[in-house]
Amino acid sequence: MKCCDEGNGQYSFSISHKEVKQGGDFEFLENLSFKFIQCSSNQDCDDSNSCTTDECYSDISTCVYYSIPCDQCGAMVKVSILTDHFPWQTTWNVKRNERDILNGGPCYLSNNRFDAIQCLSIGTYEFNIFDTAGNGLANDEGIDGTIGKYNLCIGDAVIESGIDFGSSESTTFIVVAPTMSMQPTRTMAPTLD
Ligand SMILES: [Ca+2]
Ligand SMILES: [Ca+2]
Q: Any idea which ligand is nearest the CA of 66?
């Protein structure tokens, strides 16, 4: 390799003097995380997240996680809340295995849209939305009777929405493996009798 090719930066990232990553692609460096645990194989580092590749560096007791672009490992999920006149009544969360992945509210601006967008890896999730007054986003006591609304989207598709959901509403949704570009189909060689 030539030294100092113009315009080609290089970096290397080391833990305990062991280089775990090098290259010129800075996006990768920004999307790398690690934790110190005893591991003997990559399996031991499994974080149940299809959007990371999990690598064990057993000699330094470290698992290193490299991010995979979302369109190859999961889907962008968006929660969009249009608040009503009483936005402080409304909160929401997205859970996986009882753990909060995303959450939002209470909001403090009425009649405003709040969007939360995150890449979620393959798996089953639960979206929950709550309203402390028990009237969802359908308060109509405002000046002009404006009501709110929420949308839950995977990619560009709205999979659930609601206005008058009372005190809470829950939706279970599944992020599936992204549809890969079609593999070229193998043509069978004609069999000769
Ligand atoms: Ca992983
Ligand atoms: Ca309400």
A: 1
